[in-house]
Every structure is written in structure tokens, then in C-alpha cells.
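Quick one, C-alpha cells below:
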């Protein structure tokens, strides 16, 4: 059974109801991400979001209580995906193998779902979005990410672990920004991206 057919069916069980609800929620978030990126977060209204998602405004509120809540869910999902790649077992310690795996997976995910990440990054950079996020999701992400990475570099004997944490973060985030500015006129060759990620891995083994 395809996801499309599940959405169009009336739910017969609680499990099927939850599946349909989850698929509809993802559809709304995907539509909203595209609109926030193309139209701008500030200009998008709940009515416009509901219309583009193919649902009523009232039904939209059954999934998200506000436009802010919808944006928050989109940001949380993207950050959670990154954190799950970075620290999969959540044991409080980053190993060399985990760091290498994280770097490879970040670039693989960016290349495999480029449209999503370009939209995601472009939305994050909008002034209205930065103001709304304030000290919420991004700070929680950094509070989790930065100490673990700093501890890793300290354990490996780097002279300035904090500096290395910032450098690695800037290298990965900088690639995301370059990808955003260049796409779709220019797409980096897979071979070049592979060399870039290998260069980063060699720096921090």
C-alpha cells in the first residue's frame, strides 16, 4: 500500500489513524517549508499554508496551533536529524569512528536531499525566523553539540579544543551556505565533495 493510498483511505484502526495523521503532518510541513523559502516566512499566512496544503484552515489548526508552531516543528525535525547523525547512541562521548561517520553522513544527506536542505538553510537565514527562534531550538542544539565536540578535541590532545570545534562547524556549515548560493545554477561534482569531506576527516582523526 502506498503512502498516497493510505492518506486517501478512511482509518479503520488507531494505528492506521496515527499513520495517516503522521503523513498529513509531514505533507503540511513540506508544503510550509517550500512556501517559507519562496514567499518568506513573514509573508506566509495560515490561510495560504492551508490552501497550498489542500486542507481547510480549521484542519490546519488541528495539526499546528500556529504558524510559529509549524515553523518550530520544521526546525526541530531538521536539527533532530543532524543530532541523531552526530551522536547516535547518546552516551555522552564522541569517538573517532562516530565523528568520521557523522561527517560522511552529513555530506551524504545533503547531497541526497539537496532540495530540502537548501530550503531549510534559506528559511533559517531569514531575519523573521532568526528573531522568532531566539534562544530556543538553535541554542539547545549548540548546547548539545558544542561541549561534546570540544571534549572530543580535548581528548585527542588538540591545543585549542574550542577553536577546533568552531573550525569544524564552520567547514560543514560553510559548505551548506555555498550549496545554497550556487544551486541550481551550479551543483558541486560528487568527486569534489568526496575530496572535501575526506580532507575534513583527515584533519580531525
Amino acid at each position: 500500500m502506498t503512502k498516497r493510498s493510505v492518506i486517501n483511505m478512511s482509518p479503520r484502526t488507531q494505528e492506521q489513524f496515527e499513520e495517516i495523521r503522521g503523513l498529513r503532518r509531514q505533507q503540511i510541513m513540506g508544503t510550509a517549508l517550500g512556501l517559507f523559502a519562496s514567499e518568506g516566512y513573514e509573508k506566509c499566512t495560515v490561510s495560504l499554508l492551508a490552501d497550498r496544503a489542500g486542507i481547510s484552515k480549521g484542519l490546519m489548526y488541528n495539526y499546528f496551533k500556529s504558524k510559529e508552531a509549524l515553523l518550530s516543528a520544521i526546525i526541530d525535525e531538521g536539527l533532530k536529524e543532524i543530532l541523531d547523525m552526530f551522536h547516535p547512541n547518546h552516551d555522552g562521548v564522541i569517538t573517532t569512528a562516530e565523528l568520521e561517520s557523522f561527517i560522511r553522513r552529513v555530506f551524504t544527506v545533503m547531497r541526497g536531499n539537496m532540495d530540502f536542505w537548501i530550503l531549510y538553510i534559506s528559511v533559517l537565514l531569514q531575519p523573521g525566523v532568526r528573531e522568532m527562534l531566539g534562544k530556543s531550538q538553535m541554542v539547545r542544539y549548540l548546547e548539545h553539540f558544542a561541549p561534546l565536540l570540544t571534549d572530543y578535541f580535548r581528548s585527542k590532545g588538540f591545543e585549542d579544543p574550542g577553536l577546533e570545534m568552531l573550525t569544524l562547524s564552520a567547514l560543514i556549515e560553510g559548505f551548506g551556505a555555498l550549496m545554497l548560493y550556487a544551486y541550481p545554477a551550479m551543483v558541486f561534482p560528487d568527486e569534489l565533495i568526496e575530496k572535501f569531506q575526506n580532507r575534513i576527516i583527515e584533519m580531525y582523526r
